[in-house]
Design goal:
single chain; about 550 residues; alpha+beta; Glutaredoxin; Jelly Rolls; 3 domains; 5-stranded mixed beta sheet; 5-stranded antiparallel beta sheet; about 20% helix; globular
């Protein structure tokens, strides 16, 4: 399912235009430090109100007393260069609160973080975000702690001076320079009890404490912490909550059946298990299918790096045709890429898989996430199957394989298959290409098939249908956190890939071929893989391509 960003884009524009608090005179200036939010501040402000992005604000939970990841944050008060700041008094139910810490136990990383650019947290943060800068250096006098956090203030002020007045006004009271010792702040102390090496965490708009995890980028020779990497969890959870609202609205306004098959269950890779779906008669009443998968770190779940699988691997959910789920008989119904040392959540349209799931009832499944020989990781699964009525009333009823699921050398793929001859089954009203292709491995100088732009073309009766798998040498995977990429993973999670990101679904290609098909006779389909229009270089293609018929 694709997340609509229209409302979010409107929200960003509204906040930028509506900001009205004047930018302070400097890092030593004081203000009333009143909230710059969509509703008035205060512990009761979130009740029966709506945020700028249309989401309901969250009432402040004053019952929280213990700091724990994914649990409500207890109230706290911190002393800042602008005076006292108390969460409940400034609570809007619409904002995120990011703590960024100078962690002296982080070694040279603490200084690297403090020396890094602040531009991205001004230019690219979710506007409904507050930042708190804190030092964890023990034994410092108040004035020394203040000097440490004002190092950041000076940089932020300098960057804000290069921006327009609306930007300066917006961030004036959203940057907080804390003069308390970090471990004297209960919420900070509670986080560090769980993750002593943590250098940032987020209290999201639902008051939940979210693990910060990695702040470093790989620069080509070393891993360097960056202030800019602290901005992603706020952006991610804004989008996740928008997605949740869309799903809830869909359930109310459309004929949708949400069927949960497992709830926070630790499932080991390569070990078959059973899930129970609705019966065949029930499934027959729906034409579309989505799967909503939360794939969390197993056991306690925190800190991420000690519980989740270390590497980005091809993740697979298999439908088994026999009890042992042998490779020859199983079918991959979901494909994604596991995050580096982190959890993930994705909503994926798997409508063609209705052809294979329509028997319903108790079915045999297996997951794998360690396809690059790492081994059978375990993850904690929460999974909903979402059966939906289609607007056109068309339902998939048959699938014709073209390229069988396998790992193909890209350089040889152009010669791997003869033209396919396909005759649609009787009654077909719609024909769809269903391609799951992801590039892996790399050879110089192209970087293919993971780090290059390549194309796959299917010539259907002399009509070409092409998809470009684009790689732009940007941090696109990091920029796609709103689309579901897990933020702040380990590894090179931020690097742009041609057809996938760690902690995301693969770039699936679905295209309507009906106009190019003769629905009553034989059709010729030719596969043409290319690299920048020419011969494919090295690397591998994990691929399966099929034709889906709708009735």
């Amino acid at each position: 399912m694709t997340i609509s960003l229209t409302r979010q884009a409107q929200y960003l524009l509204t906040l930028a235009l509506a900001a009205s608090i004047h930018f302070g005179a400097g890092c030593n200036s004081t203000s009333n430090n009143q909230p710059d939010g969509s509703v008035d501040g205060g512990a009761d402000a979130g009740i029966d109100t709506t945020c700028e992005d249309g989401l309901p604000s969250t009432p402040f939970d004053s019952s929280a007393t213990i700091t724990a990841y994914d649990q409500p944050a207890p109230d706290f008060t911190v002393n800042t260069t602008d005076g006292e700041w108390t969460l409940s008094e400034h609570w809007t139910g619409c904002d995120n609160y990011v703590f960024v810490m100078y962690n002296s136990g982080y070694g040279t990383g603490a200084d690297q973080l403090w020396a890094s650019s602040v531009a991205e947290i001004i230019d690219d943060s979710a506007p409904n975000t507050h930042y708190f800068f804190v030092t964890l250096e023990a034994g410092l006098a108040t004035e020394d702690r203040e000097a440490r956090v004002l190092e950041v203030c000076d940089k932020i002020q300098a960057h804000l001076e290069t921006t327009d007045q609306a930007t300066r006004d917006h961030w004036a009271d959203r940057m907080h320079y804390v003069t308390d010792f970090g471990r004297d702040i209960p919420v900070v102390d509670g986080v560090l009890d769980v993750s002593p090496g943590e250098v940032h965490f987020t209290i999201d708009r639902k008051q939940l404490v979210r693990e910060g995890h990695n702040t470093s980028y790989f620069t080509g020779s070393s891993w360097v912490p960056q202030f800019g990497n602290t901005r992603y969890w706020a952006r991610y959870y804004n989008a996740q909550y928008l997605l949740d609202e869309q799903l809830e609205e869909q359930e109310m306004n459309e004929d949708v059946l949400v069927h949960r098959v497992t709830d926070r269950e630790d499932i080991a890779g390569s070990e078959p298990f059973n899930w129970t779906l609705p019966n065949a008669a029930t499934i027959a009443g729906y034409e579309k299918l989505e799967i909503d998968m939360h794939v969390d770190c197993p056991g306690a779940g925190h800190p991420y790096g000690s519980t989740c699988g270390e590497w980005d691997t091809v993740g697979s959910l298999w439908l088994c045709a026999d009890n042992d789920c042998t490779a020859e008989t199983r079918r991959r119904i979901v494909k994604w890429i596991t995050p580096y040392s982190s959890p993930g959540r994705w909503v994926i349209d798997i409508t063609p898989e209705l052809v294979h799931l329509d028997a319903g009832g108790e079915l045999r499944f297996m997951v794998q996430h360690g396809d690059n020989t790492v081994g059978p990781y375990t993850y904690k699964y929460t999974v909903d199957f979402r059966f939906i009525k289609a607007e056109d009333g068309l339902r998939p009823f048959a699938i014709e394989p073209m390229i069988p699921m396998a790992n193909y050398p890209f350089a040889d793929m152009a010669d791997a298959f003869d033209p396919f001859v396909i005759t649609p089954p009787s009654g077909t009203q719609k024909v769809e290409l269903y391609a799951r292709i992801s590039g892996h491995g790399a050879v110089t100088p192209s970087g293919c098939a993971e780090f290059c732009t390549f194309e796959h073309t299917f010539d259907v009766n002399s009509t070409e249908h092409q998809h470009v798998y684009l790689m732009e040498n940007e941090n696109r995977c990091a920029q796609w956190v709103e689309l579901g990429v897990t933020p702040n993973q380990g590894g090179t999670w931020h690097f742009d890939r041609s057809s996938w990101c760690p902690g995301w679904t693969i770039e699936e290609w679905r295209e309507d071929l009906t106009e190019s098909f003769d629905l009553t006779g034989a059709n010729t389909v030719n596969h043409i893989p290319t690299y920048q229009g020419g011969d494919p270089p090295g690397g591998n293609m994990d691929a399966r391509v099929e034709i889906v018929f709708y009735l």
